[in-house]
User: Fold these one by one.
Assistant:
Number 1:
Amino acid sequence: MIPRALLLVNRHARQGQKRLAEAIQCLEKSGFHLIEESTEKPHQISDIILHYRNQVDLVIVGGGDGTLNAAADALVKTQLPLGILPLGTANDLARTLGIPNSLTAACKIIANGQRQRIDLGWVNGKHFFNVASMGLSVKITQRLTKEVKRRWGVLAYLATALQVVWESRPFSAEIRMNGESIRVRTVQIAVGNGRYYGGGMTVAHDATIDDQRLDLYSIEINYWWQIIPLLPAMRQGKHIQAKQVRDLQGQDIVIHTRKPRPINTDGEITTYTPAHFYVIPKAISVFVPTGGEQF
């Protein structure tokens, strides 16, 4: 039986429009019957998936982490397996799962049919794959335009981060988890479900997307320049070893701030504090590389 796949490609993703025809050809060659729908408005993605839920066997999403995030709610509801074509700028979820940026290789992974159930994070009614955060990351998101990402790729994250770091000012927050209440003065709080975020930075050195836990870190510095030595360590997740960084793990976290602060989930500002986070173990099924695949 020929598998029926709903193909959703974000034409505004860094490589979306340019590689749409290539993606269709590659998937049809791999034996899929495709239903292709436009996703020029990401907020419509969930409705499209729900509309086709009884007509397809899987959903294939081509785009970046923001596009994948927009599909998360409907994937949970329908339990349709997810195939990923990394066509965005950062592709952090693909990186976490070991899916290469090669379109041919990504199609091969979907065709081979190896699946893995992964966790999802949840905050104030919104699912996330990678990280939900507040503070510096929100300023980066607000500055990081589509044009900048399309032109500079992953380097856009670093360049924008350097621009906003010097403007950073600590804010007060209360973190409640594991029966404790912790008050902090911080410039960034990140709550990670997966391993990678922000163009390849690591949440924690041992984080995985199926470990059934959330990894929280809080950068507690007094002056903007104190974050500079931490930046290289953030690529490997070793920043949590620094004395200025608080490292916590749990399954259920509540964060309060004096005034509502925006929260960035997988690269999009979607909610505000006060925020309730928790992990949903083995929430959805994703196509991943088999142990013997070489790229």
Number 2:
Amino acid sequence: MSDTPVVTWTTDAPGVVVVTMDRPPANALGIPLLDGLHAAIDAAEQAGDVKVMVITSAREGFFAAGADIKHMSTIDAASFLAYGDRMRAVNDRLAAAGWISIAAVDGLALGGGLELAMACTLRVAGPRAKLGLPEVRLGLIPGAGGTQRLPQLVGRGRALDIMLTARQVPADEALRIGLVDRLAEDDVVKGALELAGDLVGSSLPAQLAVVRTVDAAFAMPLEEGFAFEAQQEQGLFEDGEAAEGIAAFVAKRPPSFA
């Protein structure tokens, strides 16, 4: 067994870290890769200065092919539960992280691979991207957030179509239905880093508040959502970076956000 790490991370620019999955042949989300993703998140939390995390793949033709089916074929019910919990924990940590995350997807993102991408804040797809949740062909359902996150992105009917047919959604359709947010013409990592460059100049606390309030729109009645929005804005004015943003605007200078 190779000692080469299957997940590595590098700083591309101040505040921007690129996490690369590289587990041959197809980035199956086995324990080594999940542990590597947890380690990358740990490192970002410890660094304390990450504003954008890009997650991508070094495997030609694959973002991540899904759960490790060979591993699943050898385990009992208790181990299956523990394995699922480990996968869900990665996605939940990404979704709740103190930075913006971007999945840079080219090639196949299937099953757990798509669930990982959907846990990110945003998704950039390359021209070869194909996305799907084919778990019904294994007699299972998407169990790492897929049945919950996919309808929020594409709506109930489209989500059911994708999951019940187990089909693969090409990049252009994924953009049209909202499954991905941008298409890259060629180099998906370059496209994701361009998006990251657009993000790092703004206030991270304000960006995270935007994410929280938009997510609240799916979880709260409208009036509660309005109240939550007002609470978030007041908090940014009192304790966030609004003072610097407002002062910079008045002084006609670029803001100096942390």
Number 3:
Amino acid sequence: MNWVSLLGLDAWAARCRAALIETALAAEDRADLARLEWQQHRRSLQTLLIVGLVLGGLTVVVLLALTMAVMVQFWDTEHRITAGWLLALGWLVVWALALWRLIAAARQLSQPFELTRHELMTDWRALKEKL
């Protein structure tokens, strides 16, 4: 005699088995999503490091160029003044662009694993609704 069938537990066991399978598939999908987001986060960290190093180097160059422009300001010919200030302005523009890129990369890093957290929150809400 099959007590599971007799007590009506076979439907309950089938639902539990289906829920476990669905949970396993969802966990695998979330793990894949977390792995992909980690790769993206790592690339962003690398970009932040590279742009930070470039910005540091450009800062030194900008300061040297601005110092040179001030020194040139006091020389005798007018062409030296124009050349020095144009050089300083060019380095300042390059430095500002590098700073803008650094800030953009830092903002991108401020929300790591956003998709994974969203998916897990959605799963948690769905689970709470089923309970």
Number 4:
Amino acid sequence: MSDRVQLPLDTAGDLPQRVEDVAKGAFGVENRARLLSQYFAENDKVTPENAWLHAYRLLLWVDRRIGLAHCYESDKCQPGRPWYLRSLRFHDWVTSQLSIRPDKLQQHVDWLFSQAITSLSAASAAMMSDQLSKAALQRQPFEGRFFPEPGEDPELVDIVVNTLGDALSAPLSASVRRQLSERVTAHLANENKRKNLLGEGFEDTLAEILRRIPEVAGTHEVLVRKWLDEIPGFRPARKTTKRRQVDLALVRRDGHRILITAKWSVRSDREEQFRADFADYADLESHGEDFEYVLVTNEFDAARLVRACDNRAQNSPLFSRVIHLNPEGPSAAYGSDVRGAAPEMHKRIASGRLISLQSWLSQLADAKIS
């Protein structure tokens, strides 16, 4: 495989659609696999103890609206709101764990997204250059009539220039103003593409972690985004039933199956989906043998975590295990807060109902295979 993802740079077609196609390639499965291989080749060997750190270095990001590590919905983390203080606490905790200054976090996390953006930006710039060359010919009949240049946003540039004020040593030229507008707009657009990477990127990251721990990889087959009937011991869905895709599955050498739903965060719509998925899994199990249904998440909302731990299906817990990348993170965020669901979350951690990724990986590595 080449050092950089191969993205289409043909000059035909509509530019926005071509850029969107390039984005799909930059954030797609092949480029993610290449980037993850590169990351793990260049960093410390994966162990149960450092697995969560690798996940954070790859996927955690700084919420630019508040300048702090993202741990909750951005609109609820604005200064003055309860989650701003919790974000401060989490930022303090995670930078302490990484042994870095709080203002240096961005340099140590978000690796997967930043690398994908690099691939996207290079290809998009090449396409834009070609498109502007064609546009120059189209604009020739209108020269001298003060038509705006492509990508210009005078209002945006004026906001930046007026904010900088006397800090600017000289007025910005027209070309610099245009470049400023284009780069700010592109930056904001790129941030909006994070969701294109985070969902499957989290699944791929967990899969790579599992495969790189010898004691786990030696006893389990790691399956990513497989249809349920592609996993041993599950039959195809009825034609009138929606076919289910499983985020991750582990099939142990003795046939034991672990179905994993991997969600960076847990919203209310996902909570409803968990129960529907499990009902289908149970209905389509064909070996008459138990399987585990596991949630792996980085959710920080105490109430959501408690619900995940307490959710039941018939007469037993819905999830065999609820796994957080590192429960010390949400514990640090809540601090000594005794309101709402925080005390209940602490109880689930203390009882072992909510466990760390490290604990789960160690259990997998120590599993007795019959």
